């Protein structure tokens, strides 16, 4: 199974697969050949719960082709709990800033082809 396939399968379960440096413990979202912090080449997969808080987002009201049924929606950046990692995803039904205050608790709930990671408010 490729890294991309792993990411999709874990996202469908509400989780996120990361790559932890076996020397210093630094977490990477994508495959790395060298640790960004210490330069080590040793890694192990670590699965995180896909929960966190909304760090920032943009609301899309004029959607590109294929997204019309979701409009309006937000493209969000979520800071994961218990780490410094941030992940981006798609959140349907967001029309105004009042619908999604910064700091809102959220969770990965799936993956949809063409949209990517689906995130919903908790």
From TrEMBL:
InterPro entries in alphabetical order: ChsH2_C, ChsH2_Znr, NA-bd_OB-fold, Thioester_dehydratase-like
Domain ChsH2 C-terminal OB-fold: 46-108
Family annotation (Pfam families): OB_ChsH2_C, zf-ChsH2
Membrane-traversing stretches: none
Domain ChsH2 rubredoxin-like zinc ribbon positions: 11-44
Protein name listed in UniProt: Nucleotide-binding protein
Biological source species: Nitrosopumilus adriaticus
